[in-house]
Structures are given as structure tokens and as C-alpha cells.
DNA sequence: GGCCCGGATTGGTCTATGCCAATGTGCAAT
DNA sequence: ATTGCACATTGGCATAGACCAATCCGGGCC
């Protein structure tokens, strides 16, 4: 199989940083190009993949550094802060905006509303050791008077829903897919444009089966792992699935 | 916010292909560079992001084409073939290799074995309308005499485990994260090196709590969405999570 | 000491260009 | 009609070089 040169350079750099401690600075791109007998363009392509992989971080004007390897796990049936706290992380949250918008087509569908209905929107930046790791936009239907104040008093969205509005969640569904950081998101998360992100949509229902939350979250793809665990009942046992061939 | 030129070019091309049918061919990179008054390098960078997004596909010597948008959903508690069949897709599977290997450190940990213990390895290429969409490597502990023949007779791994070896799954855990296609995987999946993939690890246990499967799957990140749905019991209710602030 | 400014350093973007590799086409030979 | 080969086309890889923007550092100034 033909392996392009930038990929060999990538492995070379990987070997180079294997022995370096976290935070160590790499040679400059110009130096690496000379040492590895290639062009700066090729070095940059190799480094870019390592940045996407989460192995390196770079800042204009400063340099390229060995990134702290840290993989945080998220469980669908728990809350963001609960998840991270359980793993010994120190989660934080920065409120960006609370406002009321009119539901568009998609939003109305997920929350079982008619388009144009008012929906509360809560935009937050989730942080970890002061470092942004996720952008979260929650949509909540129905009247929630004083939401901003109640949220400010409690911090946690779920706690606010339960205590201030007596809304208890009964079921949640998460979908996980990948996307790329656009300039705005990259700016908020402090990462490069084009880095892969985990795009998570969460819908939550109350005991009556009414949707009470539809949230869109963007996580750094190189920092998170999503975990789902299930017990199987016989009726949905995998072994009962049809044969693989059509 | 400063937006680089290749990002503007990306939007321009996005506008261009919005009106084109699936499979339509784009102008060549050299033509686009001229029309948009930029260099071919910049055009390529823009196109590359659209390829990563799943909007475009390109083949050396042929051209760049509008990709078929198709997002398939995967549910953790069902099998691969069951998932896709339920959505009206026509899943297939191509056996690449069945062999027995010695468990390394990681594998032994997941299957609760001692390193060096023999483990069956089943490597398959999952397909969809003859198109490869996932690379799946299953690891199965314990003696499974005649595994290759039993698999060949049934097609489905889970069905084989249940019918031929009386192994019934009781619980599964999936983890989902992102990674990049290395040259080997890209070759097997017929995609470009460096495309983001969904890396899914599945562990399955039998009723006795013994691990019976540890599988590593690589899905095209632009084609799949992972779905997890849960009912909440009070003891693990999100509202009981700690406050957001540390 | 503290502040400000200018220059050096480093990554970020863009251009222009050359060659390679895969593909498709059309003509010629059989 | 089929095969085979040369050639044009198109994307893939790599280079060299220029300029921009963020950062850092040190000297000079208050």
C-alpha cells in the first residue's frame, strides 16, 4: 500500500513525542521540515493530524506542544456534572445566554410543538479545570417564569427543572454523531477550526411522555468517550436478530 | 471574527452544490480555483472539509461528486444487521479473517483473562448496498470449536454464539469516540486517509457476568449516528446530580 | 518597579508550480 | 467486435516562498 510522505512524517513526529512529557514544546515547523528533509507544508499536514488526534496542541506565536492525554467518559443517563465529578474531574459551567425563541421546524418536531411556539433557550459553555470542553444549547418548552434567576440560584439545569418547576425526567434519548468545528464554535471552545467534534442531541421526556428538553451539545472529539450500558431482555435479545445476509 | 478564505470558498462551494442532484460532478479543482479567484490549494482545503462532512466524494482521475446523504442510526442494544434492516437498509457482511490470537494486556483486561490466553478473532467488513461502511473485529474467549464453519453456516455472530455454543448475552456496554482513518482502514473502507471515524467498543456479558465478547468497530463518521435511549430510575435521576459549580 | 513599544519568533494562510497516479477515451491493430 | 496502448484529464502529493497575526522578550522610559 502506498503511504504518503506526510504520513511517514506523522509517525516520525509521533516517535519523537513519545518520550516527551506533557507540555513539552516541539521543534518549530521550520526546524522539523529541515530535520526531516521535507517542506513545511508536509510537516504541517502531519502535525495537523496529530492535533486532530489530540496528541498535540499548537498556538500561533507560541509553538506546538505535547497535549495532556485525557479522555473523559460520558454516560447518557446521568448529567454532565455528575459524570465528570464521578471521575474526579472538576466540572464548571459558564452561562452564555438565556433567551426565548420561536420554534423552527426541527425544534417543534422534537418538542412536539407547533412551529413558532415560544421555547426557552439556555446556552452554556461547559468547562473543566477552567478549560472549555463543550458547548451546550438546551431548549425547554412551556412557560418557565424566572428561569434565568432560578438557574443562577442553582447552577444545574436538571435541579432547576425539578425544584423550581416540578418537572421530573422519566426517559432520555441521546444520539451521537461527528461533525466539524465551524469558526464560531472553534472560537468558543478555543480549538482549531475543522477539528472533529462529537455532536450529541438529547431529548428528555417526563412521566407523561411529554418532551421537556431538547439539547444540542458539541464536545471536543478528542477528549470524550460516550458510554452506553444496557441489560438485555429476551424480547430484544441480539441473538434473535435476523441473519446478516439480506 | 476572522474567517479564512478557504472557509469562504467552502461556503461558496456549498452554495454551488445545494442545487445539484446526488452524483453530479463538480467543476475540476483547477476550474474552481480560477472561477473563485484563488489557488488550487485553497480550493482543495475547502473541498477536503466538505468531504469530511460527507457532502462530497472524490476519486482520483474521475472527479469530485455530490455525495448521497444518508445517515444510519445504530442502537447499542441491538445487532448491526437488525439495526440497519429495521431502517430499510440492506446490510451485508464480508468475512475477512477468523483466527486465534494470544490476548495482549488490553484484551485480557476486557475479557477478564490472563495475558497470553487464546482468543478467537473474527474480522469482518460490514457492508451496505455492496458499499463498505464498517470494519468490525470481534474477540471471543474460550474454546469455540469449529467457529469458522458455524459462522459460515449462519452469518450472524450472535446467532452463532446462541445456537452453536449456547452463549446468551445478558448485558452490553458500548463506548463511542472519534478517531481518524489510518491508511489500512481507509483502504478497507474505501475512504480517504484522515477521515473521522466513529470508534465503537462493545463488551458483552452472559448471565453469569462473564465477558463473552469484546469488539472494536470502526464506522464512517459521516454516515452513522449512535442512539441510546434510557428510562430513568429515581436512584439515578439526573436531578439528583450535584450542583454544576465545583 | 511598572509600563510601553519594537523587533524577533512562531504558527496561520495563501499562492504558484511541478510531478505522480488513477481514470477515461479514442484510435489502431488484430 | 475486441483488445491494447498512448494520451489527455483529474485528483493526490509535495515544494518553495511570501506575507499575516499572535506571542514573547527585552530595552527604554516613566
Written account of the structure:
The structure is a homodimer of 246-residue chains. By secondary structure, chain A is α+β, with helices and mostly antiparallel strands. The first copy, chain A, folds into 2 domains: 5-66, Winged helix-like DNA-binding domain superfamily/Winged helix DNA-binding domain (Arc Repressor Mutant, subunit A); 72-226, Chorismate lyase, CATH 3.40.1410.10. Chain A has 8 helices and 10 strands. The first copy, chain A, has helices at 5-18, 29-35, 40-52, 80-86, 105-111, 147-154, 157-165, 183-189; strands spanning 56-59, 63-66, 72-74, 91-102, 118-128, 131-141, 169-180, 196-206, 211-220, 224-231. In chain A, strands 4-5-6-9-8-7 form a 6-stranded antiparallel β-sheet. In chain A, a hairpin with a 2-residue loop joins strand 5 and strand 6. In chain A, helix 2 packs across helix 3 and helix 6 (147-154) packs across helix 7 (157-165). The longest helix of chain A is centred in the first third of the chain and has 14 residues, at 5-18. The radius of gyration of chain A is 22 Å and the shape is elongated. The two termini of chain A are 32 Å apart. Strand 7 of chain A pairs antiparallel with strand 10 (224-231) of chain B, so a sheet runs across the interface. Chain A binds a DNA duplex (30 and 30 nucleotides) through helix 3.
Summarize the helices and strands and which ones pair or pack.
Two copies of one chain form a homodimer.
Chain A: H1 5-18, H2 29-35, H3 40-52, E1 56-59, E2 63-66, E3 72-74, H4 80-86, E4 91-102, H5 105-111, E5 118-128, E6 131-141, H6 147-154, H7 157-165, E7 169-180, H8 183-189, E8 196-206, E9 211-220, E10 224-231
Parallel strand pairs in A: 3-10
Antiparallel strand pairs in A: 1-2, 4-5, 5-6, 6-9, 7-8, 8-9
Helix pairs in contact in A: 1-3, 2-3, 6-7
Chain A binds a DNA duplex (30 and 30 nucleotides) through residues 2, 4-6, 28-30, 38-42, 44-45, 58-64.
